[in-house]
Amino acid sequence: MNVDVDLVRHANQAFYAAFEARDLEAMSGLWEHSDRVLCTHPGWATLRGWGQVAASFFALFQNDQHLQFILTNERAEVEGESAWVAIDENILSDSQPATTVAALNLFVRTPAGEWRMVAHHASTVTADPDLSDEGDDDQ
Amino acid sequence: MNVDVDLVRHANQAFYAAFEARDLEAMSGLWEHSDRVLCTHPGWATLRGWGQVAASFFALFQNDQHLQFILTNERAEVEGESAWVAIDENILSDSQPATTVAALNLFVRTPAGEWRMVAHHASTVTADPDLSDEGDDDQ
Asked: Which of B63, B118, B134 faces A42 most closely, judged by CB atoms?
């Protein structure tokens, strides 16, 4: 169990390393290539299936802006063949103010024992949450 | 497997029914009561542990605004004892324009075969996604 938690953490960190390096090959190798995978970038509609997810990273990596991810509050949980990681992405970039993005990443273990990402959901944290309802963020 | 997918869908629909009804008892019954549960409301930092999650629903349900969830694009996947649902929440309220929120909900099966929510991550979809980086939504 602890070994798996470590492997999941490693897979999760590799995701951010590939993101920072804009390395599409490494990013591709981390994901399950199936139609059930999901990716929700901040403010985006959910992308469904590896084709859409891959295309989004291809587009993001075309941009020459360098992003740096300072990762905090990592929590990894393994439940059988599945795992999830909650993490805060503190993102530094050349051209924009630092932002904090809350992320939830899901992984599934392959028969060979490798952990593959099946979902990434990320959303910008605004400073002063509005308690009024589910649909309202205060940006 | 199909039975479990149906049970997961049912649990997911019960979450939104409890949300609409502002029924804290029903909401409480849906969640795993543990320190590993996670809840990210739109624009909020991630809440961790059942205490924080319960408090957020208590606060949200104090508000007398009626929310209606029109659920679209539901996709449920079961992987062993875990499951996830991607769904779009089209939220109507008395006082605000309709919004679309992308959500990812995670469930874990209890030994008794019931599915309990362990994570809810919701983020407002903005109309025109900004491809420039992970940390930037265009609101």
From this structure: B134
Return d(Cα B129, Cα B50) in angstroms, integer: 33
Q: In the predicted model, what is the mean pLDDT of residues B110-126?
A: 96
| pLDDT recorded at residue A128 | 57
For chain A, the domains span 3-125
Terminal-to-terminal C-alpha distance of chain A:
40
Instruction: Residue A122: list chain B partners with CB under 8 A.
Output: 123, 134
Which site among A137, A138, A139 would you substitute to test the B interface, given the most B Cβ atoms closer than 10 Å to its Cβ? A137
Mean of the per-residue pLDDT values of chain A: 91
Q: What mean pLDDT do residues B47-69 have? A: 93
User: Which secondary structure element, helix H or strand E, spans residue B2, and what is its range?
Assistant: helix B2-21
Instruction: Give this complex's ipTM.
Output: 0.90
Look-up of token digits 């008395």: B94
Determine the average pLDDT of the residues in A97-101: 94
**CATH T-level topology, domain B3-125:** Nuclear Transport Factor 2; Chain: A, (3.10.450)
Strand pairing class (A115-124; A38-40) = parallel
